[in-house]
Amino acid sequence: MQQDSSQRFIARLFAHLTWIIILGLFYLFFQDKWQQQHDPNHHVMTTTNTSVVLRRNRQGHYIAPGRINGLPVRFLLDTGATDISIPGDLADTLKLTAGRASYARTANGTIKVYATQLDSVALGGLSLQQVSAHINPHMQGDTVLLGMSFLQHLELIQKGDTLTLKP
Hints:
3 helices; seven-stranded mixed beta sheet; alpha+beta; about 170 residues; four-stranded antiparallel beta sheet; 2 domains
């Protein structure tokens, strides 16, 4: 009797472990699919002539990794933003100095922001020095709005779901 219950216990244990492994594999597979839909530019594609090609994510946005003053950040391209807009907490992490206060109009109304100067901004193989930006203490998260203070120096070509940025 003891051996029979021991065998049933082992059989149930293996059945549970099998299901855990199957669920783990599903998680790994679908996590990758989710990331491809929400962050298709996780690895920015730079062509040989330093052009950067971005794919639109599921929400219709262009999101890509980049660097501010050599430190990694996540950009959301925003042609409606005059300057690069950096969340307050991220600005602290990047050790940016808040300068002159001014007001900016956003979709949520007028807010107070603080001017700052970025030593360098890089997206893929594209890099600019001394770019104006502002620190937005009201902005949550860690995504930087990459505005026209950077994008105005580039040629933007949109075709379908891709955006090509050229110097």
